[in-house]
Amino acid sequence: MAGPARQEARAAHNRPMLEGLAPVIAADTRLVILGSFPGAASLAAQQYYGHPRNHLWALLSALWDEDLVALAYPQRLAALRRHRTGLWDVYRSCEREGSLDSAIRVPVPNDLAQLKRLAPRLQAVAHNGGESARSRRITARLGVDVHTLPSTSPANASWSFERKLAAWRAVFSRYDLAPLQTEPAPP
């Protein structure tokens, strides 16, 4: 390796490890949404799904008929707890430039086996996107249902909001965490 390529490789190895966020899980949590690792905006704000174009809070708003997007972050977390839903990520730390999952390097996993201890009433894990779902072999050992949902990331533009909502609603309604969407009765 010569010149600029060597310098770039050396710089990549000197990137600091980024630290993720603490789990948002209560004893009565029935479903945990597992992301991969917080994006740059989330880390800067120290808030899960802190990028304004991420669909997570808007999806939950639609599922629960409650405007979480308009709430301050502590109130969003309170709504999660009321709806017996938790948040965490599969990676505790990693190296990454930017926010894309494909840029994650040297990931250090969270101890996902402790989910049942943190949430003894846990019924399901919902992986938010493909990178998170790579940990299915670990979450499958928890003895709860495991689902892979379409990523709420703005990078997942191939799924419309409505299509994401339908997929998320199907899982949440299965655990009585959101009503099934019914068609209005004809006049």
List the helices and strands and how they pair.
Elements: H1 3-13, E1 18-19, E2 31-35, H2 40-45, H3 56-64, H4 73-82, E3 85-89, E4 91-95, E5 105-109, H5 115-118, E6 124-128, H6 130-133, H7 136-139, E7 145-149, H8 161-174
Parallel strand pairs: 2-3, 2-6, 6-7
Antiparallel strand pairs: 1-4, 4-5
Proportion of residues in β-strands: 15-25%
What proportion of the residues is helical, as a percent range? 25-40%
CATH topology: Uracil-DNA Glycosylase, subunit E
Backbone CA Rg: 18 Å
Q: Can you write the helix and strand succession as a string?
A: HEEHHHEEEHEHHEH
In words, what does this structure look like?
The chain is built from 8 helices and 7 strands. It has one domain (19-174): Uracil-DNA Glycosylase, subunit E, CATH 3.40.470.10. It is 33% helix and 17% strand. The protein has helices at 3-13, 40-45, 56-64, 73-82, 115-118, 130-133, 136-139, 161-174; strands spanning 18-19, 31-35, 85-89, 91-95, 105-109, 124-128, 145-149. The strands form 2 sheets. Strands 3-2-6-7 form a 4-stranded parallel β-sheet. A 3-stranded antiparallel β-sheet has the order 1-4-5, with no helix packed on it. With 187 residues, it is α/β, with parallel strands linked by helices.
